[in-house]
Amino acid sequence: MKISLLIIAVMFAISLTFTITGMVSFDLTVQESKELLGSRNEGFAFNLIQNLDRHIENRLIDFQELTKTELIRTTLTESNKEFERIENIKAYLQLKEQEIEFTESNPFIGGISDVALTRDLLETIEFYRDEYGYEVVEELFVTNAYGANVALATGTSDYSQSDEEWWQQTKETGKYVGKIKFDENYQNYSIEFAYSIFDDDENFIGILKLLVTLDVLLNDFVQETDLLTISGRDVLLLDNDGTQIFANQEISLNNSPVFFFPTLQKGNDVGFFELDDEIDDFRLISYAQSTGYRTFEGFGWFVVIEQNSSSIVNEFVGLRNSIIGVSILGMIASIIGGFLISSNVSSPLKQLAIIADSISKGDFKIKTKPSKIDEINTIGKSFDDMAKNLQKLIRTEKELAEANVKLKNERLAAIGEVSASMAHNIKNPLATVKSSAEILQKNSKHDGELNGVIERMNRSIDTISHQINDVLNYVRVTPLDVKLISITELIQSAKNSIEIPDNVSFVIPQSEIKINADVEKLEIVFINIFLNAIQALGKDHGSISCTIEQKNSTAIIKIQNSGPDIPEDVLSHIFQPLVTSKQKGTGLGLSTCKNIIEQHKGTITAQNNPTCFIITLPLSLN
């Protein structure tokens, strides 16, 4: 009986342990999945709002350019001269307001406005209509400096606008942007824009007003959301009051803000948070707020990406239920089996003990031997089932780990794309600054102070370029361009690509050993190691020496320098990204080296006493 109770206790403890382990693994995996999903969608939201701001800025520039046309300026100048001869302009405007119906069928007032201006504005509207395939501008008209309408290309308007708030604000500030509204006349959502018009002497001469459809401002945004919208994920666009502008793949305004808008207001410009959901286990809200683009200050809108429980998390839920079910069954089986064991089955129990020991060591292939006692056979079968369940559990945890790694890789890939884009965008203007500095240096040969400033500029530019190249080399993974090359030539080419200080001596041996490799990528590896060695030596006299030897089908390259040892707390993880002992380093150089060497199916290690980097490469990649 004691043996039975002991077996019951042991089996119950095993089942309970695996239950707790499975549940903890499940919770950790789900939490990590939420972090990865939220961060990935956060990146999507940021790109969407940035592209939207850029698109709106381009459209506003197009509209504002209309104010600079010679025809508009000439017509307004003539109109203002006519009004200057009127003694009581206010009374005149009131009289005309009652007499004139200013519509598309009566778009200009003879003697004050110009038919050519109206025709030109109509052609502009038709151009936008042809380009987008729908109405872009619902209303477009021009007033003179006194608020009187000079030309109306489309829509309906009063003759005098000087008493309107938008007109007064535009005259005072030079620009007016209205709120989104649904216009009953046009059955469409639109925004009002108005711009002051000035002559060549910057004198105010009138105002151009447009009623622009929301469709044209969100044209590119809608197309981009088509690529992101999948089952379980939706893209929203909110205005600065939290009201939905775009949802469910269509433009539509609600009367009240979304319920989680206060959380968006309290957060940063970009972020994500989790909401409880009655239907799904959770709902992730990733968002990014408009911060403007160049001259466009932004509307303060929010792009929100809602993500409910993904298929991956649902699979985790199924696995959790399987773990609980299997564990409960195991507990029940252990209790029933234990009570069925009698005291006269010592020998079969010993065999079961041996089987249990094998399972605990990870051997799940062992099988119980048939016994004449039914109780022993039942317990033996329970052991076989438990072994299968444990195999399934281990396989499941392995799949969970692989899924976790996959999600992390997707996150790193998204970060890599953003980093590469930022590095590329910095590099182009940096090249312009470099060229400008070189031109200044050529034209200031006798100005010692200016030459010193330019030299500091060049050093700073080189530092930034080096760090940008570190980022690009780390995030950019391209196929190998394999060529046969001498290792000595490869190292010599890398040495020639950098500036060697006078205090550093270099030793490169002559070797006939050749390898199949990507020359440009391996040059990056050697350049990084040489630069690190030069920086470690500083201003002290020192040496950098290389050795090359062949062992079987591999080449072993050792690069040694006489500088100080690498700190022990850095040496153990020196090839990990963002690890550096230099104040101005990016921490990506040696990590990039490791990636390149591994892409060549080789290895790279570092050691102290003396400081030495050891690179092992196969002679052929076949």
Oligomer: single chain
Taken together, the total number of domains comes to: 3
By helix and strand content, what is the structural category? alpha+beta
Gyration radius, in Å: 37 Å
The percentage of residues in β strands lies in 15-25%
Low-confidence stretches: 102-113
Mean pLDDT over the full residue set: 75
Largest sheet: 6 strands, antiparallel
> Which range best describes the helical content: under 10%, 10-25%, 25-40%, 40-55%, 55-70% or over 70%?
40-55%
How many helices? 16
Shape, please? flat
**Total number of beta strands:** 19
Separation of termini? Answer: 65 Å
Concise synopsis of the structure shown:
It is an enzyme of class 2 (transferase). By secondary structure, the chain is of the alpha+beta class.
Textual characterization of the structure:
It catalyses: ATP + protein L-histidine = ADP + protein N-phospho-L-histidine. This protein has 622 residues and is an alpha+beta fold. It has 16 helices and 19 strands. It has three domains: 1-38 and 64-234 and 243-268 and 310-361, no CATH class; 364-476, Helix Hairpins (Orthogonal Bundle), CATH 1.10.287; 479-618, Heat Shock Protein 90, CATH 3.30.565.10. The strands form four sheets. Strands 1, 2, 3, 4, 5 and 6 form a six-stranded antiparallel β-sheet that branches. Residues 102-113 have low confidence and may be disordered.
Which descriptors apply to this entry?
alpha+beta, Helix Hairpins, Heat Shock Protein 90, cell membrane, 52% helix, 3 domains, six-stranded antiparallel β-sheet
